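Entry for the shared binder. Reason: the reviewer on the internal report wants the predicted structure included alongside the sequence.
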Amino acid sequence: MQGTVLGGSNNFFEVECDDGVIRQCSIKGKKLKESKGYYNPLAPGDCVEVEADELSEGEGQILSLVPRKNEFVRWNVKGRSPQLLAANLDYIIIVTTPDEPPFRPRFIDRALAQAEYEGIEPVIVCNKYDLADPDNLDFHARIAEWERIGYTVLKVSAKTGEGLPHFASVLEGKLSAFMGQSGVGKSSLINVLDSSVVLKTGSLSEKYGRGTHTTTKGMLFHLELNEALVGGRSGAIASIIDTPGVRRFVLHDIEADDLALYFREMKTLVGTCSFGMSCSHDTESGCKILEAVYTGVISEERFDSWQRIKEEIKTGSWAD
């Protein structure tokens, strides 16, 4: 039979099987040929072929991986290999905050580029929006710019409930993965979306203004959305993968010279410069991307972010 990986690590995974049983499954032969080169062989959301254990109803073996619709990956610097965070997604939910932990727009730009590369629709969720300082012009300008170039940006607060009904409507009936820095409130959002799910949440470090890691491995949950958020309806379901918080998101499999293809506002201009595909978009005359920056079609902030991330790819030196 087939099943969906809910979570796990190394060689043991929880699999929700087609017969309705959640089994603890090991990988037959301890290796999946489809996972060669990855830091982890499977991720929440993966569909696998399973053989049930005849002697134990709650156990089984994973025989093979069903080809993925998509996968969301980051480069694991410590493990020196790509790390699967989630698979077969409808949305990647990039969670950020205006403060506590500090707002990091380049972190979000990296995640957006990886999502574009993987062909997954990203949604930017600004949690703790009740803490947004109206005088923080850089924060508000960045949010407005992502909206202007076509990204969905949701302004919510797990504490006050602001924006949560709209957020619930986006998630309903879909499989989405939450990703972001430690401390942005991914687990808190899940707790208020479905009051029957209580995930461990962590307090922020006052000294560093950074979050503590409370989710140690990715896990798929089927949330029964809070009736108050969905117009009083019962039985509204959203499938959510809660991924571990990361302080440094490193792109995987994107070459420096190709990065502009994964910046939404630059993509259509690539190849139209006077020097064609060989244009570096640095100082060349007839560069359509530079012209777009000068005329405000591409914001200076996003162009600067693109330049910095391109340099990070080239040098292999990534900022937090």
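Summary line for the report: Residues 300-315 form the longest helix (16 residues).
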